[in-house]
């Protein structure tokens, strides 16, 4: 059967929207603070440093512009993470103004974990951390421009390792909580749109499905299990429920992947046949009806022969959903009045008997 968007267990739409907002915020705030510190450095006489920060600010602004024009999120995230890596290593290497640039490193895990996820974020954070340790503790080999005290180096490397570990655990917890929330929401949505007994779509869901899949050539049928009340009265409601399950399975097996079967209510089922004209739809419903009536079912030790009656309509002949349902009900009633185990369609109101 057709799989609707209602069945998606883990939606990524909210995650992508959150990351989009985060990317835009990083670009805008990054440009703002880089420009701010570039101006401060310029008036402090650090012209080369001011020029470098200005170039970084321009890059962040171009990323913000790219964000609005491109849907390639992965490239954008990697570009932002790369740019942020370069800026932080630059600040650590040069020291920034009064050797305070190193403190911006504490924002690094937050950015990369949010943009790239826990696994890639951890790899990148640990790699950059290793580079920073090399720069700090081997200044002769790395030609480090800034001068840091041993106490600053030890405090930075220890606290930075803690921030990376904490950021990783928080990202893992966030993803797990998000997945649990999505699963819970999907389960609630499924409970609201699925029939508990048969697992089919219920009456509440079908209108949305119809509006999504409506085409000029769409056929709809309402089917009713023949003499179901007698089955319930004779064998009990438990057997009646099992009969409905068997009928639901039989209908699904007789239809195409694109078709939709709905528990319409009680012993009634609605069948939606997208991209199907009335003539083809009649053939499909008739085949479905024949396969059910030709089968023998053994339910809880009882041999039962089951059949359905159907009223069939086409979207071509009706202006609205309500009109289609009204006419399908009318034709279903005529099929039942004509002896059951048959279909009635709106081709010159011709009764369709089993061949």
From TrEMBL:
Cleaved signal peptide residues: none
Swiss-Prot/TrEMBL keywords: Membrane, Transmembrane, Transmembrane helix
Catalyzed reaction equations: 2 GTP = 3',3'-c-di-GMP + 2 diphosphate
Cited InterPro entries: Diguanylate_Cyclase (IPR050469), GGDEF_dom (IPR000160), MASE6 (IPR048435), Nucleotide_cyclase (IPR029787), Rev_trsase/Diguanyl_cyclase (IPR043128)
EC number assigned by the record: 2.7.7.65
Domain annotation GGDEF: ranges: 216-348
The keyword DNA repair appears for this protein: no
Gene3D superfamilies listed in its UniProt record: 3.30.70.270
Transmembrane segments: 21-40, 46-68, 75-93, 105-138
Cofactor(s) this protein cannot do without: Mg(2+)
Molecular-function annotations in GO: diguanylate cyclase activity
Pfam families associated with the record: GGDEF, MASE6
Top EC group: transferase
Alphabetized PANTHER family for the sequence: DIGUANYLATE CYCLASE DGCM-RELATED, REGULATORY COMPONENTS OF SENSORY TRANSDUCTION SYSTEM
Entry protein name: diguanylate cyclase
Organism annotation: Litoribrevibacter albus
């Amino acid at each position: 059967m057709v799989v609707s968007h209602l069945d998606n267990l883990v939606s990524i739409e909210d995650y992508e929207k959150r990351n989009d907002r985060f990317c835009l915020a990083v670009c805008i705030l990054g440009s703002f603070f880089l420009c701010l510190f570039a101006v401060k450095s310029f008036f402090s006489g650090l012209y080369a440093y001011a020029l470098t920060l200005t170039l970084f600010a321009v890059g962040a602004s171009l990323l913000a512009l790219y964000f609005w024009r491109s849907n390639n999120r992965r490239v954008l995230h990697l570009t932002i993470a790369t740019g942020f890596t370069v800026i932080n290593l630059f600040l650590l290497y040069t020291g920034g103004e009064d050797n305070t640039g190193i403190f911006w490193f504490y924002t690094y895990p937050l950015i990369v974990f949010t943009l790239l996820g826990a696994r890639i974020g951890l790899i990148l954070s640990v790699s950059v951390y290793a580079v920073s340790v090399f720069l700090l503790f081997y200044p002769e080999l790395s030609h480090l421009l800034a001068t840091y005290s041993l106490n600053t180096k030890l405090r930075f490397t220890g606290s930075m390792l803690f921030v990376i570990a904490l950021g990783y655990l928080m990202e893992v917890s966030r993803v797990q909580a998000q997945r649990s929330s999505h699963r819970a929401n999907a389960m609630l949505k499924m409970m609201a749109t699925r029939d508990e007994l048969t697992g089919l779509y219920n009456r509440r869901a079908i209108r949305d499905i119809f509006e999504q899949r409506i085409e000029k050539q769409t056929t709809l049928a309402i089917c009713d299990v023949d003499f179901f009340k007698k089955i319930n009265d004779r064998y009990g409601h438990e057997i009646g429920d099992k009969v409905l399950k068997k009928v639901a399975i039989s209908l699904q097996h007789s239809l195409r992947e694109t078709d939709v079967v709905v528990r319409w209510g009680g012993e009634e089922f609605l069948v939606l046949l997208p991209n199907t004209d009335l003539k083809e739809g009649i053939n499909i419903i008739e085949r479905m009806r024949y396969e059910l009536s030709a089968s023998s079912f053994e339910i809880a030790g009882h041999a039962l022969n089951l059949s359905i009656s159907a009223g069939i309509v086409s979207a071509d002949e009706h202006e609205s959903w309500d009109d289609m349902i009204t006419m399908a009900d009318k034709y279903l009633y005529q099929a039942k009045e004509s002896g059951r185990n048959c279909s009635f369609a709106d081709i010159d109101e011709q009764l369709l008997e089993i061949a």
